[in-house]
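Observation: inputs received (chain + magnesium ion).
Thought: call the complex predictor directly.
Action: predict_structure
Action Input:
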Amino acid sequence: MLELKHIKKYYHVGDTLTKAQDDVSVAFRQQEFVAILGPSGSGKTTMLNIIGGLDRYDSGDLLINGKSTKDFKDADWDAYRNNSVGFIFQSYNLISHLSIMENVEMGMTLSGVPAAEKKRRAEDALIRIGLKDHMHKNPSQLSGGQMQRVAIARAIANDPEILLADEPTGALDSETSEEIMKLIKDLSRERLVIMVTHNPALAHKYADRVIEFADGKIEHDSNPHVEHEKTDQFKLNHTKMSYFTALRLSFNNIRTKKGRTFLTVFASSIGIIGIAVVLALSNGFQKQINKTQSEAMASMPVTISQTGTDTSAMMTGTSTKTFAKTKQVTAAKSDAEKAQHVNKLTASYLSYINKLPKADAKNIAVTYGTGMNLVRKVDGTYKSVSFSTTNPDSKTINAQAMMAASTGIGGTVYPIDRDGGQSFLKTYYKVIAGKYPTQATDIVLVINKDNTVDINALKNLGFDVSENQKLDFSDLVGTKIQLVANDDYYQKLPTGTYMPSQDLAKVATASGTKTLTISGIIRVRSKNSDGLLASGIAYSAALTKQVLNANADSAIVTAQKAAATNVITGQSMDAATKTAILTSLGGNDTPTSIQIYPTSFKLKDKVLDYLDKYNKGKAKADRVIYTDLAGTVSDMTGGLMDAITYVLVAFAGISLVTSMIMIAIITYTSVLERTKEIGVLKALGARKKDITRVFDAETLILGFGAGVFGIVVAWALTFPINAVLLSVTGLSGVAVLNPVHAIVLVLISTVLTILGGHVPARMAAKKDAAIALRAE
Ligand code: ADP
Ligand code: MG
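Observation:
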């Protein structure tokens, strides 16, 4: 069934040539026990390895069941070793970190035999070789004879047609040797057994046929066989190790080296720890910076007013160093006055502002000077009220001021999101009582950090309070105020002038009247921010817009537009006063100011660019000039933080690379250490890929372990780091490990260590099986 034809295998080492196989031709029967005798170095092992497919011949041919092996691929040899051949070695070559059962099962594991059948066959083999009672021990708990029995069980578990034994009794005492020989003799009744031995007595006692070897040649054959021409009836089952098997093999191996594994994992996790801590810190600092910036921007929005100061005009002011020689005095405008610029806040400018990308400025507040006709029922009777904070008791006779008070100018406009949301209030203000506004008619009461509110704001709302008097939240939340349209509020007198209606109960219930509700009391969130909204009533720009729409075409506005005199007092007035009165009556839709709230300095720069673009190519008079209140605050911190983070990550990255190199070295050592195991796995039919997989699995476990360990340590470190930062800077919770960063770092650690270990793993796979098994 097996035939060697003119097999040659030469070794060239330096100048010497060793003819390990020097034209060997021999044939073996399907079933016989062949013993090979010969002096050391005569080529016995080489022949056995060639027959078993562990080593390749230089020339000649090896025929298996009539099939030439000349064109065998690696995969064919792997399958041949796995399916057809069982190996027994002098030094047993059990894999020490696997159990006896797992050792016996390994060949079947490689060929993918299902677990239950694998177990049954392994048990059968162990019972057959007489180790029934030792099945669940570890190899290290067995005697030499018992270990050799396990090795024999492993060789026959796959029921191979050929059993190859290389000095199987070489390391055993004579009594044990006899037992092993009996066992092998017994096994040879079902298959071809070829055994190398240098014990002629044993050879002659047990073998059916003795071949004597010398200098790579067969000297004598006691029972030669001539193979008939055979038709090729060769079939192979290809082998494949599953990733799971690879993982388990590596895991078991790692388990036997706990101390070293821990040190490896610890050392390679240092890079991960470094990067994780740096990221956690920069995360926290960045958050802090963003918060500070957004608070700064909230109290210092980019503002566009009806008049702006053209700083560029001021710079180019004509300050001269020469004295005038004329004899006159010239009337001139001051530089400051010259810099005064009237902004044309036209409808087209407003629509340009509205097209500002939402991502750059979420909130824009447009303030109009329009007043509101407000009426509130106090103790059963309706009273005229306002949102103003001017003292209602100081009796100014000024007609303009009186009118302002009656129309209810006052209160603060808070910005709403451009899609209608309340992110501004929600971000910077906390509801102390009630709830955030949900519609335009919901108004809020802004109170100071110490819960005080301007007494005039309360008095103007109709609350009869004295200084330092305390009100319950419930007295204020839910307060209803009627907002009356001009046409309901103003009556035309026979004289042609207008005056507020005396029947407030009637106007309060008129059809055009809206009900405003104090939906909540709000207070600024951050201790450090101040003055975003003045204490008192605040309402949204949407409400002003509604008032404007309702009053734009009212009778009093139309009359005031046409008249040269004040339609309320009947007095004459100048153009500026007329505009002021019209504005307060809601007859002027030019905003008094526009506030834009970007949330960071970077976004603010984008907003400013956008505003500058409007002025490009426009005549001086048509330009709109803004005030950048936050412009003086440096935004260097952000960039600096980035730079520091990059440098620190770079350093941590270097340590990551170092640990990767270390993993490579450790894998390489492991490869050297496990050379024998690689040889055994190959003898059992493992493919190159499988060997690579075993080591890749090992580095996968190490890399993943290092990653997880590093993240856990870094996370634990954030606590002392935060404690120190809190005591030094007063900032709490700065270092926060982002879970996404944590996961990515574990992945990086795993991938990098696999990469680092892959080269040695490939080296392991390429190891010559014959040489690997010779290694001690
Ligand atoms: P035996 O098993 O009969 O003692 P071997 O088959 O192991 O002999 O070796 C036969 C000859 O081939 C010896 O001279 C040995 O030194 C040589 N040899 C075996 N393997 C190698 C190798 N990888 N490189 C060089 N020489 C080798
Ligand atoms: Mg030998």
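Thought: report the result.
Final Answer: The pocket of magnesium ion (ligand 2) is lined by residues 44-45, 166 (CB under 6 Å). Residues 397-408 have pLDDT under 50 and may be disordered.
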